[in-house]
Design brief:
Layout lengths: L1 H11 L2 E8 L3 H11 L4 H9 L4 H20 L7 E10 L3 E6 L5 E6 L2 E9 L23
Antiparallel strand pairs: 1-5, 2-5, 3-4
């Protein structure tokens, strides 16, 4: 019975890392997070390495932290890890003012983000195949 519990906990073992109050817009960070969700760890690292955005540099730090947590705290192998989940929540917004013409001022919203990545051992998820919409036909090849 003890062996059964060990295997169940090994399957459910997940490692996560959270970066809070990061000074980047959640909208911009979510675009990058969508690129790596469901991919294995090595592929996620490659995608982030070639992404030119500032958000990619922040997310790669969180990804590496989650990988280190998995190896050190949960004794998981890094070559088996998959990005099981990842999300970007909105943090508090810093409100600033910018002087404008005719004595007015406009608000500047400096948004912050909370970035969370969950790694788990397992197979990489296959992307769902796109189905054709009904009524759409393949083009027939013209002969002659």
């Amino acid at each position: 019975m003890a062996e059964k519990q060990k295997t169940e906990t090994a399957e459910q073992a997940t490692a996560r890392a959270v970066a809070r109050y990061i000074r980047i817009s959640p909208y911009k960070a979510r675009k990058v997070m969508d690129l790596i969700r469901g991919k294995d760890l090595e592929e996620a690292r490659r995608v982030l390495a070639f992404s030119p955005t500032h958000a990619a540099r922040v997310i790669v730090k969180v990804l590496e932290s989650a990988a280190a947590n998995a190896e050190n705290n949960h004794n998981l192998r890094s070559d088996e890890l998959v990005v099981r989940a990842g999300w970007v929540d909105e943090g508090p917004t810093l409100k600033r003012w910018m002087p404008r013409a005719r004595g007015r001022a406009t608000r500047i919203r400096k948004r912050t983000s909370h970035i969370t990545i969950v790694l788990a051992p397992g197979e990489k998820r296959q992307p769902s195949r796109r189905r054709r919409l009904p009524g759409r036909q393949k083009r027939k090849e013209r002969t002659g």
